[in-house]
C-alpha cells in the first residue's frame, strides 16, 4: 500500500503525520535512511515482551509441524558433487582480443 503523508516542522525536528491506515501500536520506531536513494524506512521497535511472544509463536509452529526425520539426510539430498562453473569456459582467446 502506498499513500501520501504530510511533513511538518516542530521546533528543530521534522515530523511525518501518518495516515490512519498506517497507524502503529508502539511508542518508538526504528528509522533508517538509505544514503544512496534517500529512502527512509520506519519499523516498529518491538519491546522485549513482543520478542518473547514472537519466539514462543515460532517454537509452537515448529512443535505443531516438525521437520521429517530424514530432513537433509544423505538420502534426501539432491546435490551433486561441487563443480567449477567456469570449467567449460573457452580460454582460447588471448587477452584483449575479445574486446574487438
Structure report:
By secondary structure, this protein is an alpha+beta fold. The protein has a domain of 59 residues. Helices cover 17% and strands 20% of the residues. The chain is built from 1 helix and 4 strands; from the N terminus they run ββββα. The strands form 2 sheets. It has a two-stranded antiparallel sheet. Strands 3-4 form a two-stranded antiparallel ribbon. A hairpin with a 6-residue loop joins strand 3 and strand 4.
Mean pLDDT: 83
Low-confidence stretches: none
Regarding quaternary structure, what we see is single chain
**H/E series, N to C?**
EEEEH
Which secondary-structure class do the elements indicate?
alpha+beta
Total beta-strand segments: 4
For the structure shown, list the relevant keywords.
1 helix, two-stranded antiparallel ribbon, alpha+beta, 100 residues, 4 strands
Provide a quick synopsis of the model.
With 100 residues, the protein is an alpha+beta fold. The chain is built from 1 helix and 4 strands; from the N terminus they run ββββα.
Amino acid at each position: 500500500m502506498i499513500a501520501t503523508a504530510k511533513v511538518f516542522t516542530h521546533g528543530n525536528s521534522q515530523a511525518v503525520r501518518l495516515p490512519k491506515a498506517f497507524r502503529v501500536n508502539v511508542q518508538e520506531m526504528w528509522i533508517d535512511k538509505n544514503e544512496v536513494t534517500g529512502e527512509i524506512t520506519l519499523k516498529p521497535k518491538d519491546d522485549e515482551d513482543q520478542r518473547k511472544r514472537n519466539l514462543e509463536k515460532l517454537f509452537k509452529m515448529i512443535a505443531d509441524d516438525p521437520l521429517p526425520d530424514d530432513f537433509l539426510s544423505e538420502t534426501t539430498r539432491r546435490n551433486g558433487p561441487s563443480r567449477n562453473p567456469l570449467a567449460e569456459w573457452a580460454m582460447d582467446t588471448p587477452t584483449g582480443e575479445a574486446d574487438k
